[in-house]
Amino acid sequence: MDIQQDNGLSALFVSSEEERVCTGFNFTEGPVWIASDNCLVFSDIHLNRTHRWRPGNDTAEVFREPSNHGNGNTLDLDGNVLTCEHFGRRVAKTAYGGGTETLIDSFEGKSLHSPNDVVVHSSGAVYFTDPDYGYRRNPEPVARELDFQGVYRIAPDGAVSLLEDRIEKPNGLTFSPDESLLYIADSSEQRKIWRYEVNADGSLGDRTLFADMERDERTGVPDGMKVDTDGRLWSTGAGGVWVLSAEGELLGVFETAEHAANLAFGGPDWSTLYLTANTSVYRVETAVTGIAPHSR
């Protein structure tokens, strides 16, 4: 693991070496740790599968196939796996060990583009991003029905609201530990991370620029992200994974053998960082003890 711009980042790791835990994929994404089953679930977007890997194994099994080219995954409060499907153009809900149904596939009667990432608030509300580049890879003719790329909220009662339509390519998102803030990545050429105030009703308030990678010439865009219990933001980005303090100070950037698109914490005490890269999934042990439930 190559640590760059180290401003205290190395102190957050127990080991400076990542371990490749499984390989042989096309493009892995959307990792989520399932504590109840001691496993990691993740997507292989282009091969149209979702996989499950357990510690001690060097291979992963198929969890769901086809996955409609699923990308981001998370758990809802009932332990269902929520998956953002590019070709399905929906957020799907899969009962763990059971069937799959549509959570949402349209807004105001118009088809979504290709939901990308999803996070669940402690109230049960579901927040997700819907950029347009996923469905455009579909070899079947599909129509664009919305003229913006949005960030949405599904309230616990099922009501759907558009929260933000100004981001060019909304991608990864995560809450601060107290859920008073929501971070959203823009993976367009703008390559920015925005931080929003979360209002009492779950809507979004003022936003501020939290991280700017637009002029960074290194490979990578802000994509998957998580927040630890100390409020540090861990986000894939230019040159590797960026780690920033809650105040926005860059603690450093680290790169693994393959550039990672997404990440998740897991393990018995939520201190193991899993990284999904192109062909493989990696892990590295950190000194972070505990992750906010909605960041899992």
Model description:
- This protein has 296 residues and is mainly beta.
- Helix content is 0%, strand content 46%.
- The strands form seven sheets. Strands 1-24-23-22-21 form a five-stranded antiparallel sheet, with no helix packed on it.
- The radius of gyration is 17 Å and the shape is globular.
- The chain starts with a strand and ends in an 11-residue tail after the last strand.
What layout of secondary structure does this protein have?
Elements: E1 2-4, E2 19-23, E3 28-34, E4 39-44, E5 49-53, E6 61-64, E7 70-75, E8 81-85, E9 90-94, E10 100-104, E11 106-107, E12 110-111, E13 118-120, E14 126-130, E15 150-154, E16 160-164, E17 170-175, E18 181-186, E19 192-198, E20 204-212, E21 225-227, E22 233-237, E23 240-244, E24 250-255, E25 262-266, E26 272-276, E27 280-285
Antiparallel strand pairs: 1-24, 2-27, 3-4, 4-5, 5-6, 7-8, 8-9, 9-10, 11-12, 13-14, 14-15, 15-16, 17-18, 18-19, 19-20, 21-22, 22-23, 23-24, 25-26, 26-27
Poorly predicted spans: none
What is the H/E string? EEEEEEEEEEEEEEEEEEEEEEEEEEE
Class from helix and strand fractions = mainly beta
Distance between the terminal alpha carbons, to the nearest Å? 23 Å
Q: Main sheet: which strands, in order across?
A: 1-24-23-22-21
Percent strand equals: over 45%
Residues in helices, as a percent range? under 10%
Number of strands: 27
Which whole number gives the mean pLDDT? 94
**How many H/I helical runs?**
0
Shape: globular
Tell me the radius of gyration.
17 Å
For the report, how would you describe the main beta sheet? 5 strands, antiparallel
